[in-house]
User: Fold these one by one.
Assistant:
Number 1:
Amino acid sequence: MKILYSIVLILITVYASAQETVSLGAGYTQDVYYQLNSKEKTPVSNSNWTLAFATSAFDVSIRVNHLLVPHVYAIDGDSAAFATINLNSVSGTDEYFNSDESWEYGALNMPATGSQFDYGWGSYDPGSHNVNGSRIFVLEFANGDYKKVFIKKKSVANVYGFMVANLDNSEFVNQSFSGSTFGDRMFYYYDASSNTLLNREPVTDNWDLLFCRYYGLQPNEQYYPVAGVLQHKAVKVIQLDNINVQMITPDLYMDSTYSENISSIGYDWKTLNAQFQYEMVGNRAYIVKAQDNNVYSIVFNSFGGSANGNIVFNQVQLEATSVNTVLNDMNVYVLNNPVNDILQVVIDATATAPVQLDLMNLNGQVLSNKQNVITPGIHLQSFDVTALSQGIYLLRIVKDGAVMSMKVVKM
């Protein structure tokens, strides 16, 4: 079976490989959310937000836009102490950064002491089930400005309340919003400069990877801005090194463990040479299990740096969910499901026999039909579905009087 699977994956490489380009823009001015199965790209400005609040009722993560706010300080205190906080208050205090391993640990969560109820910016109250603010944060902006922030509470009803002001207490504002209103997103955003709440990311089910500039932890235990890729919390990744990237088969990764570290792809797929040009790390591929459980390989081809922010890579779908069946000792694989244009079906036969393939709508109407005498070996059959409307169809396979149907999704 491993040999068969390798042959099928070689066919996938030939017929489904595609080069994609995602651009962060000249000077890295935008983030790009990317969905693997549709290849849809959603670019958004990376300079229009200060804080990101987790929308889930069970997540208290608050992240900081380090591109605008490279320094974050924390001081123990409550709303009564807020007005007293000034620049002297941060003398000798530690700096905090967003985790690049998990979305659940933003910079405002990092001062947590390890206590069961300490979430960094606040502490959990077992009686009310609210998380109440216990630390005040000073944000030092890259342009030299300062803001102080106190998260007053996240209630059991998933409502955030927080206050923001300049260090001299001018431009003081109180803000609140319900995370449940934006529950179909991972985060909701706040821009301190304009006191604006922002809905800037796609629906959480509609992206797998975030191409962006972020602060990454370096080998020297310091955080620096890097350009790379973070993964959705429901996406998993395996890094493969020292392989032939043109011949990726499941035996290369089937015994490996997928990583849920959000920077599993990260930034180190490239290096800067002595001529200050970016080179790709050779013989490396990333195996990505997307939100829809389809599996893809990603191999980076080039990086344009700050000149254009272009990240160029090859994407190949390696596995898909609900795409293979066995009918009278004949294996049938649908390579690209969901499909946009050409539906590709691989038949692995052990004996000569007539085989009929019918592509039908849900009313049973045959839209396209193929009848062939299949000999032992691997065979590829294709259906052009470009003209079909988006929706669900059935692929019916008939062999020796036995019938099997498979669901096909037209994107």
Number 2:
Amino acid sequence: MAISVKRDQSGPMRHVVRIRAHSFVVDEPPANGGEDSGPSPHDIYDAALGACKALTLVWFARRKGMPLEDVEVSVERDDSQERDGIYRLRTALSISGDLSDEQRQQLLAVAARCPLHRHDGGADQGGNGLEVS
């Protein structure tokens, strides 16, 4: 699968991302020289982690026949030490449904093992400077 990112000269930092049949604009906020006409690459990266956790929970619950009704994941970014190579993301999950305590614990454990979380070093400091909790 190829992903294309092409400059859109209608804005100083604006680009268009194309993935399969989908396209969306990425930009930077005015403080970084953009016009905030779309999410920044950091926003997309952080959202990808949240989406991965949510989709992984739904996939797992369906596979196991768990009565998961809703999932919400919030991602909080701390990029205060990014220049030092440390980028922190904290996720909070909210799940609903007629789930037992055991099923809830299983789902939380599965969320901690979503493919992007594992790829980026897990909850502890990975070799890439990303910390996810």
Number 3:
Amino acid sequence: MSTEFINSNYTIQEKLQILADAAKYDVACTSSGSSRRGKKGELGNTEACGICHSFAADGRCISLLKILMTNHCAYDCKYCINRASNDVKRATFTPEEICELTIEFYRRNYIEGLFLSSGILISPDYTMELIYQTLYQLRVRHHFNGYIHVKTIPGAPDELLAAAGFLADRISVNPQSLEPQVLAAIGRKHSPEDIEQAMALATSMGFPHVNMDLIAGLPADTPEGFRRTLDRCLTFGADNITVHTLTLKRASRIVIEDQKENDYADVAAMLEKCHLLAEAGYRPYYLYRQKYMSGSFENVGWSRDNLDCLYNIYMMEEVHTILSLGGGGMNKVNLPDGTLRRFHNPKFPEQYIEMLPSVLEQKQELFRLMADGAK
């Protein structure tokens, strides 16, 4: 792993390209669940439904600037693209750079807030300190009052977790599994006790919204082990629990080393254990699939206490107009008669420049449709 952690040779735009792209592998339930009115002298507000419009290069409408603090990582997790042994471009934002991006994107009405996660840079303590510094500067120095969702780092000191939790609207504590042999098999360095300690801290501090992510189908896991993980998670009192099915990314060690996968029946049996969530008062409110998922199953978000994220549902049902910026983007316009018009942006830079007159004509047509009542 490179020791040039800040990568001063990269511009902030180049870092954004690397770390926003790396963040797409960091799946999460990013519902807001938070309502806070704007205040005089402060920037931003947040609504419980978490719905606003931002634009990814592939045309998806997103509500948050979703980035990694860094994709450097001291760990070598077998399912992760950003693991230490993978040969990918590495970059690290400074807290000041993330503040600049968040504030400038918010001023332009691109985003409602920030979703911040990270690889493990040097150590959990060091990484969580950088995340805390970022949140502190946003809230205190820049008076940013918008929505912030942060993924905590297992094994970081309680005082850093508590400080970040007070500054964020939602935190994620993501064990993936609470079976020691599973964590060892996939290369995670935290222990079940680390997760239990973090969740106990979150509960005692009264953090507003806490999410947990689990993965069904991990190496060395069993249906009985997955049930034990669910049983233990239910004692923590999380607001949302998202159950992902293991995605076999082509650059992951699981695929490269041709490790034995859990078979279809085992993964199905693990997912069937989610009836425990329903019995505990959670209900499934959104479902989506990705490429290369074990057994061709799905990811399901479970929620309680009316903390559903309507934004997730609206985007999957394609009931909002989506404006896309940049090469390869897909614009979607919902018309009053219920039909959907699509406008493609050319993918490659040379093609985009050559076709600029037709691209501009397309945008004019898109804006005309919106002025005529597209929703």
Number 4:
Amino acid sequence: MGVIERYRDRLPVGPDTPELTLGEGSTPLVSAPRLSAQLGVELFLKCEAMNPTGSFKDRGMAVAVAKAVEGGAVGIVCASTGNTAASAAAYAARAGLPAIVLHPAGGISLAKQAQARAAGARVLEVRGTFDDALRASMELAESGGYVLVNSIDPNRIEGQKTAAFEVVEELGRVPDVVALPYGGGGNTCAYAKGFGELGARPRLVAAEAAERSDTLASAIRISEPVHRSEIDELVAAGRAEVTTVTDDEIIDAWRALARSEGVFCEPASAAGVAAVRRLELEPGSLVVCVLTGHGLKDPAAVDLLATATEVVDPRLESILEAVSGTSFTSSGARTAAGWKSREKAPTSCRATAPISRCARSRSSPIRRTTTSASSTASRSSAGSVRARPRSRPVSSPEPPPPSSSPTPTPRSFSASTSKGTPTISRPRCAAASA
């Protein structure tokens, strides 16, 4: 069940709106006991990485593309730092529409670009910034036929507000604090709208990068937020606040999420956690941090921010020598200053998707429900290391003379596909009635 079917009565859809879905929404709310203990609060993580294309964008994209189909669009267009591109391409393919994606040249991770290309989108790299790509996308949409599906489209905000509904449904109450990354500002507006429709006023914290145009967190690398005026209005009305975090703070939060809680997100997703670390909160406050994208969206970050791998011999002594004195919670990683050339770095890494539990407070009156997720792993073949071959005995007899018989034809082998293509299952949270 997607967001259109689940929240039809709260969305601007009608009988002619197709129920376009890839199964978006109903993402897990994961308790973070170790970070909770460190911060003195009760912290939960809204894992939006478990949406179909790996980011929160899918909620709004389902509604935006469905409305484009309803309106007779010939195609869709978007500007993107990566996640919008992947989502737009996937939902356009689902709807049978062509998609055009514009992104700043060299400004997004190869993994995100690969998602858009695999789904058949026409991906164009613009010589300029994200803002330049957005202006060009708007011009194309205004020329007729193509619908712009960036968050300027109010249907995107409508779809993304459903995450706020789920947070309240899962917790059984309104959280005291909700923190999330602030790039273009659309998601902050969406959460404010969702909570507003519920009559709720949590402390909404939007975390922006100190160096917006050059931050390591590519998903929020937007120098001029398109929703800045709306965010300013929310701040003036006391409905939101903006907290600035440095790249080093983002790195520390990203590492803490993976190593303390086992949740692997892209660096930008950790901005909300970095912001919460800056806040002065009442002990025991109920806090939700929104993790907007999966770690596999930006695998190059692992090579640059995490401990490097090491090749060892397959002997106990060699393994013990390698791990002796190793702290498995230490970083062994670079600072933000050494991270800036990330797009040109090798992308070899081994990363594991988070194993999530849909958790609630012990004191929550609603029924406990748990879900499980299968894990995924990937390794770049370009950066893999060949194992050293075992040496052969030197005491071998004199080799026989060459045979005059013809060289046998090598046998060909084909991979069996009898078991089918493996699929990735996404955990679902059973929503309690609000």
